[in-house]
UniProtKB/TrEMBL annotation:
Gene Ontology molecular-function annotations: 2-amino-4-hydroxy-6-hydroxymethyldihydropteridine diphosphokinase activity; ATP binding; dihydroneopterin aldolase activity; kinase activity
PANTHER family in the cross-refs: 2-AMINO-4-HYDROXY-6-HYDROXYMETHYLDIHYDROPTERIDINE PYROPHOSPHOKINASE (PTHR43071)
All copies of domain 7,8-dihydro-6-hydroxymethylpterin-pyrophosphokinase, residue ranges: 209-220
Catalyzed reaction equations: 7,8-dihydroneopterin = 6-hydroxymethyl-7,8-dihydropterin + glycolaldehyde; 6-hydroxymethyl-7,8-dihydropterin + ATP = (7,8-dihydropterin-6-yl)methyl diphosphate + AMP + H(+)
Protein name, entry field: Bifunctional folate synthesis protein
Keyword Plastid tagged: no
Record pathway: Cofactor biosynthesis; tetrahydrofolate biosynthesis; 2-amino-4-hydroxy-6-hydroxymethyl-7,8-dihydropteridine diphosphate from 7,8-dihydroneopterin triphosphate: step 3/4; Cofactor biosynthesis; tetrahydrofolate biosynthesis; 2-amino-4-hydroxy-6-hydroxymethyl-7,8-dihydropteridine diphosphate from 7,8-dihydroneopterin triphosphate: step 4/4
InterPro entries: Dihydroneopterin_aldolase, FolB_dom, GTP-CH-I_C/QueF, Hppk, Hppk_sf
Organism: Blautia hansenii DSM 20583
Keywords: ATP-binding, Folate biosynthesis, Kinase, Lyase, Nucleotide-binding, Transferase
Top-rank taxon, per record: Bacteria
One Pfam family this sequence matches: HPPK
Enzyme Commission identifier(s): 4.1.2.25, 2.7.6.3
Family: Belongs to the DHNA family.
Length: 273
């Protein structure tokens, strides 16, 4: 993971209403929040301009309002939703580590506090997209629109749509292919579930391997992750052998490197051609 500079806010005290028991949500109690804001402070350090950094005063007030205006049974849920709100609110944030302490946790035993501590970061993923049934362009446009509506996903770049011959030897119509660059808070597994749901909404049927489909969405790359499970392989298997992947991908990320071979997309496309 890339190294970031850190801005710390320690032990911000907030009176809020979170808890499992009715008296907690009715009467409220004290919570203590500490956060580490991961960002790049170089520009702020060289310009001495506040707009080049993250205003920790603004963040403190944002945290206070969020904790007081929302109610959750679990501090895990409060922490998760607060971190996500921070990442959406402050564009210069790359990630957040947050510890939420509950000093008066009602467990009937003497303790200083109970707490939960989480770290969440924005991730960058690259998706392959294809369609060779029905209104192909409409299916790809719909997929982009659906991704942008998913909480925790933002589409940053989309390549031009490319007409390609089908892959895999099955007799079928030409494909319309594209690649997209997205920013996401979802894990690879969560992102895969989202893509399958979008395919399902497009009436995708998995009947014939390499067969025709209304919509095909694949995770090509996810940060520098290398993983293999029963359901998911990253980087996408044989992506370096598929021009319908490399051509659109080179349009939006020519210098992106494969985490295993370390070759750029441009290099892989040149070797394939």
């Amino acid at each position: 993971m890339m190294k970031y500079d850190e801005i710390h806010i320690e032990d911000l005290e907030i009176y809020a209403r979170h808890g499992v028991f009715p008296e907690e949500t009715k009467l409220g109690q004290r919570f203590i929040v500490s956060v580490i804001l991961y960002t790049n402070t170089r520009k702020a350090g060289t310009t001495d301009e506040l707009e080049c950094s993250i205003d920790y005063g603004s963040v403190s007030h944002f945290i206070t309002r969020f904790m007081q205006e929302n109610t959750y049974k679990l501090i895990e849920a409060a922490a998760e939703n607060l971190v996500e709100a921070l990442l959406f609110e402050y564009p210069l944030l790359a990630g957040v580590t947050l510890e939420l302490k509950k000093p008066w946790a009602p467990i009937g035993l003497p303790l200083k506090y109970a707490s939960v501590k989480i770290s969440r970061f924005w991730h960058r993923a690259y998706l392959g997209m294809g369609s060779n049934m029905g209104d192909k362009k409409a299916y790809l446009d719909g997929a982009i629109e659906a991704l942008n509506k998913i909480k925790g996903c933002q589409v940053e770049k989309v390549s031009e749509y490319l007409v390609t011959k089908p892959y895999g030897g099955v007799e079928q119509d030409d494909f319309l292919n594209a690649c997209a660059q997205i920013k996401t808070l979802l894990s690879p597994e969560e992102l895969l579930d989202v893509l399958h749901e979008i395919e399902k909404e497009a009436h995708r049927e998995r009947i014939v391997r390499w067969g025709p489909r209304t919509l095909d969405l694949d995770i090509l790359l996810y940060d520098d992750v290398v993983m293999e499970t029963d359901d998911l392989i990253i980087p996408h298997i044989e992506m370096e052998l598929r021009d319908f992947v490399l051509k659109p991908l080179s349009e939006i990320a020519p210098n992106l490197r494969h985490p295993v071979s370390k070759k750029t997309v441009t290099q892989m496309l040149k070797e394939l051609q």
